[in-house]
Amino acid sequence: MRALQYLSAGMLLAASMAGAQTAAEHIALGDKEYVAMNAPAALQHYEEAIKLDPKSYEALWKASRSDVDLGSYEQNEEKRGLDFRNAELYARRAVEANPGDAEGHFNLARALGKNALTQGPKARIKYAKDVRTHALECLKINPKQPGCLHVMGMWNAEVMRLSGFTRMMAKTFLGGQVFESASWPEAKRYMEASVANEPDRIIHHLDLAGVYRDMGDKAKARAEYEAVLKLPNRDYNDGHYKGEADAALRAG
To answer: Residues 32-53: what's their mean pLDDT?
Structure first.
């Protein structure tokens, strides 16, 4: 009888060990959910991988990516802020784990940009400088990384969208001299490069349309908004992006 008890216990232990998933397996499952545009499930798997391997570079930058996806259209302000803070923390850990790869710097720049939106004016200036630093570091590693090209395009556009007075205040009182490098031609150049290097990603077309619109080129803006509506969804928030493009086209 005792032998049977030991045998049963051993079988249960073996079954438990066989059922336990490794960090790599959780990352693979997270990738599957990411492709299926199921960001909550993807994040859950990436976080499980991080629990098993706290320095997993791949799990860290992918968790950051999913947290930004979840926070971008989150209606609850507290939850949105938490998503962006977690995204920044995961991305910082990713860069620490592997500073020589572009994905970590891209996801940190992306998370910083989102987190900046939850901060006051002075903190936003600091965040804007850090966004630029990591985006440029990313492009130094991989000059054609489409996400970093996008970040730099939007960095230039968002600085140019500030009022002249705000830019002057940032430069004079908040140490934002780097803002002087921003321009609409640079916004256009970077955004066009992001589309050229990743033409099937909807968000590139949407934000390029916004740059064309603000530069007064309505025909090119319209063409990009139409491209957004024609492309198949591949990212978690593509439905939102298509809604914005449709609204812009209706507004003329």
So the answer is: 98
